[in-house]
Amino acid sequence: MSYKQYSGSAGGWGALKATTQHLFKSENVAKNISNLLRTNQDHGFDCPGCAWGEKGVPGRFRFCENGAKAVNWEATTRRVDRDFFAKYSVSWLNKQTDYYLEYQGRLNEPMRYNPDTDHYEPISWDEAFAVIAEHLNALESPNQAEFYTSGRASNEAAFVYQLFARRFGTNNFPDCSNMCHEATSVALSKTIGIGKGTVTIEDFEIADAIFLFGQNPGTNHPRMLETLASANKRGAQVVAFNNLKERGLERFTNPQHPLEMLSNGSTPTTSHYFMPKLGGDMAVVRGIVKVLLERHIQAQQQGESVFDLEFIAEHTEGMDEYLATVSATPWEQIFAQSGLSQDEIVQAADIYANAKTRIVTWAMGVTQHKHSVATIQELVNLQLLFGQVGKPGAGLCPVRGHSNVQGDRTVGINEKPPATLLQNIESVFGFEPPKEHGHNVVNALQAMSRGESKVFIGLGGNLVAAAPDTERVMAAMAQCNLTVNIATKLNRSHVNPGKDSIILPCYGRTDIDIQASGEQKVTVEDSFSMVHSSSGRVDVSGELMRSEVAIIVGMAKATLGAMNPVDWQSLADNYNNIRDYIEKTIPGFTQFNQRLDNPGGFYLGNSARSLVWNTPQSKAQISNNVLPESLLIHDVKSTPKRPVFVLQTMRSHDQYNTTVYGYDDRYRGVFGERNVVFVNPQDIEALGLKAEDLVDIETLWTDDKVRKIHGFKVIPYQIPQGNIAAYFPEANPLIPLESKGDFSDTPTSKSIAVVLTPSEVRQLVRSA
Ligand SMILES: Nc1nc2c(c(=O)[nH]1)N[C@H]1C(S)=C(S)[C@@H](COP(=O)(O)OP(=O)(O)OC[C@H]3O[C@@H](n4cnc5c(=O)[nH]c(N)nc54)[C@H](O)[C@@H]3O)O[C@H]1N2
Ligand SMILES: Nc1nc2c(c(=O)[nH]1)N[C@H]1C(S)=C(S)[C@@H](COP(=O)(O)OP(=O)(O)OC[C@H]3O[C@@H](n4cnc5c(=O)[nH]c(N)nc54)[C@H](O)[C@@H]3O)O[C@H]1N2
Ligand SMILES: [Mo]
């Protein structure tokens, strides 16, 4: 276990070395290399890593280190079979690390929990479907069931899943995006009338300036580094706002570029780097607008303007009220909350003003705060004042997480379904779907805790580890009459079963999916609203796993009957049939099956990009929010004597959400260790601590519950004073379920008020 500063660039030989190590670890080397060559290509599969888009240039071979890890993790030959479950009890498994659980290999047979023996035991597919149907049909109300979705599910699986749940009678669709980009969907729908980003990958090739807020592409969207480095090379300004110094936001060596690799060269990914305080981005943007407003007022005296008044008049509403609020916002509050100096804010404003076309991107550093919706609205305000939506090289770019999280929402995974979706379902399928809003993640977990929701079904994902307040979530699962997990790999959610519990093993993106009509493909939508097909390469015929679609169809037939409201089996037999229904039900999918033949797929379109504003006012809305009162503590019961820190939880370089591939975080210089906390060196000194001391971290909140994690190693790091950082899922027990974003209900994973105390507990060694 060690930490040392990483001196290399992101990507480069370090990435190649790590990629090769992962190929060997998966025990499936030759096959995996050929898989990698087919990732994100025509006739290959969509990378199960992130949702960053591709330009669709046929024959071009592109991969990234973390995509390679995702592919290899899934395409392993190791299996978690009936012997494994016979050997290990569920209580024993629950004591193992997240790394251990997933490392054991692919799940390959349906299993049912036996509470008497505390072991999972084999069950046939038909019996499993019958048990699920029995539990669902025994509920007093369909709203006592929760249908969770994680964002790897294909459009086809997600569409069939929502149809099953809605026909069953509920809109309870908690999904991973509730913990992810929900604030984006809420803020963008309200302001520009569509909950998605307005840019395409081509816009990045011509933008004059790219402003990146709260994201770590070096780890989480590595293919984006190439986009940023080439923008930088051609002279665009690439400006990062990040709470931490992240390597990938400084320099990048392209592993697909032989010259750079051989010369040990690298390209800067950003031209400017600002380090605001956690949650300070709204104040940063407010500051930029305030600088530019002052210039605008002066320009007006000379009959000129800084803002795009023509665009504002034609396309927007709300400017005057907003600008009055900007004028009234005191500079002291802007400096205090942003943590940036006047010079830095003016510099950022200058870069913005000197560019003609600007893209603004953001991810979890922006969406997982209490005031995330207001922060995103502030980003939108800035772009609208300068007419930066619906123009080439400009726009709004939320960088999505899971590879199909955007598509899942498009095809109906939505606990607050729009009226048109429900009308279309009714006209196409001839039944009246439920209209009342269903549960998001927080509502679902609260209802399960209260014993109101009794059946939990998870289409992928790992809610027990991904959700906040881990102990409470474990208790909520245990209380359910039935928990069902459709999954590729064993995880924390499976070893926290309900009273009855079933694991249904499914194919992943890399597997060949053969159904009655032959080999099937599925489709996904990337961050740029491009829909394309994906077909796996790994032969899993002869194994007992099934496709997600086949599993959902099995549950639906058993629960609702073979023909209610569709011939379910025909959907599983040929996914073209599902796509025909999607075409009839979801706007934008005209000639869905035919258009999939286009290389690179097809563009779903974006109303805001076409300057069509689907808001009630038919105009884009400039929002008027005041800055939050305080960023430090919301709702704390009593002020403690120790200094209060704001904690963010984030991903290491060796993980995919709750999937832990290893214990290194190369770019942050941490090796062999995950129980660490990144602290500013001056804060370490003030606390009377030194590097590598162990601390306990305890949450401050309004209730009496003690939320504390023990034995975390202090790592000195470039982070503003008063802010600290740790990894999720290890830090999830610290986040109260009720600590959530205004209007989004997203857990505040990037702002938790905590205190640090020297630890009495020896560090757990968490290796496999
Ligand atoms: N390899 C890999 N790829 C992934 C994932 C993965 O786990 N592994 N997860 C996928 C998913 S589901 C998602 S949603 C995305 C997540 O992608 P990211 O949003 O990049 O994920 P995080 O690791 O949470 O990183 C948050 C970043 O924002 C910064 N930050 C935190 N708080 C603030 C703040 O208040 N202000 C500012 N300006 N910066 C802040 C942090 O320092 C960190 O650099 O990645 C996707 N891709
Ligand atoms: N503290 C804190 N908590 C967070 C976050 C944070 O930044 N901080 N981030 C949040 C975010 S952005 C997200 S998106 C959520 C993620 O929440 P989830 O999506 O629920 O979690 P994952 O870890 O992505 O799910 C991993 C599991 O999915 C299953 N799986 C993998 N591939 C497939 C497949 O193809 N099909 C099926 N059926 N199953 C598959 C495997 O069994 C694996 O164990 O976590 C959230 N939680
Ligand atoms: Mo996410």
Automatic annotation (TrEMBL):
Keywords: 4Fe-4S, Iron, Iron-sulfur, Metal-binding, Molybdenum, Oxidoreductase. It holds the Pfam family Molybdopterin. GO terms for biological process: cellular respiration. It comes from the Bacteria. Residues 645-732 form the Molybdopterin dinucleotide-binding domain. GO terms for molecular function: 4 iron, 4 sulfur cluster binding; formate dehydrogenase (NAD+) activity; molybdenum ion binding; molybdopterin cofactor binding. Its cofactor is Mo-bis(molybdopterin guanine dinucleotide); [4Fe-4S] cluster. Residues 106-487 form the Molybdopterin oxidoreductase domain. SUPFAM superfamilies: ADC-like, Formate dehydrogenase/DMSO reductase, domains 1-3. InterPro entries: Asp_de-COase-like_dom_sf (IPR009010), MopB_CT_YdeP (IPR037951), MoPterin_dinucl-bd_dom (IPR006657), Mopterin_OxRdtase (IPR006656), Mopterin_OxRdtse_a_bac (IPR010046), Prok_molybdopt-oxidoreductase (IPR050123), YdeP_MopB (IPR041953). One of its GO terms (cellular component) is membrane. Belongs to the prokaryotic molybdopterin-containing oxidoreductase family. This is Oxidoreductase alpha (Molybdopterin) subunit.
